[in-house]
């Protein structure tokens, strides 16, 4: 991998995104608007909003980054751009890292915006530091980016890329502990939830919600989510194809 080539790839992707205001709106505004909607849904039940809102503060960015990244990467391949790029002295690792940096930059802005709105406009009540809430939200967005890059290799069209969301995201959403405690699930489902990264993303948010001090469980959750993102990015580099068959 070459840092120069990686940064050049990231710059190209950022310039392309800069000319697509609808994608920027999806990345930055949709998570915020969904949190505002959730606030009014639980207007009379602040405790429920604090619990579900803190969890969804990480889940919403993950979902939007997954969708945008998978579709954008697939579009590069189906248009022939990716094939032309890989005929140059540009490795798959440079390409994946460049995409991760570009979308990661948007993830930073997205996570910061959503966290700021939740804390200072929607009065999300947490015991821990807002910076650690932001850290988990950012890691979740980066995980969504990594998953989007990975699944784009297995889709033949943008429609198929969107179809991966029910297969990749929704099972994690159902098993992450948001709707029912993980230890109260059937043993097989509890075991499945224990190997899904979104479970630890929600656990990390819950730790910040309920504890003023950082706990060992919080750092465990952070390491697992970050490690999952890096592992999926590595798999994305291995499975990246020049073009759609």
Automatic annotation (TrEMBL):
<dbReference type="InterPro" id="IPR051449">
    <property type="entry name" value="ABC-2_transporter_component"/>
</dbReference>
<dbReference type="Pfam" id="PF01061">
    <property type="entry name" value="ABC2_membrane"/>
</dbReference>
<keyword id="KW-0046">Antibiotic resistance</keyword>
<feature type="transmembrane region" description="Helical">
    <location>
        <begin position="161"/>
        <end position="180"/>
    </location>
</feature>
<feature type="transmembrane region" description="Helical">
    <location>
        <begin position="131"/>
        <end position="154"/>
    </location>
</feature>
<comment type="similarity">
    <text>Belongs to the ABC-2 integral membrane protein family.</text>
</comment>
<keyword id="KW-1133">Transmembrane helix</keyword>
<keyword id="KW-1003">Cell membrane</keyword>
<keyword id="KW-0812">Transmembrane</keyword>
<feature type="transmembrane region" description="Helical">
    <location>
        <begin position="95"/>
        <end position="119"/>
    </location>
</feature>
<dbReference type="InterPro" id="IPR000412">
    <property type="entry name" value="ABC_2_transport"/>
</dbReference>
<feature type="domain" description="ABC transmembrane type-2">
    <location>
        <begin position="17"/>
        <end position="243"/>
    </location>
</feature>
<keyword id="KW-0813">Transport</keyword>
<keyword id="KW-0472">Membrane</keyword>
<feature type="transmembrane region" description="Helical">
    <location>
        <begin position="54"/>
        <end position="74"/>
    </location>
</feature>
<feature type="transmembrane region" description="Helical">
    <location>
        <begin position="218"/>
        <end position="240"/>
    </location>
</feature>
<protein>
    <recommendedName>
        <fullName>Transport permease protein</fullName>
    </recommendedName>
</protein>
<feature type="transmembrane region" description="Helical">
    <location>
        <begin position="24"/>
        <end position="42"/>
    </location>
</feature>
<dbReference type="InterPro" id="IPR047817">
    <property type="entry name" value="ABC2_TM_bact-type"/>
</dbReference>
<dbReference type="InterPro" id="IPR013525">
    <property type="entry name" value="ABC2_TM"/>
</dbReference>
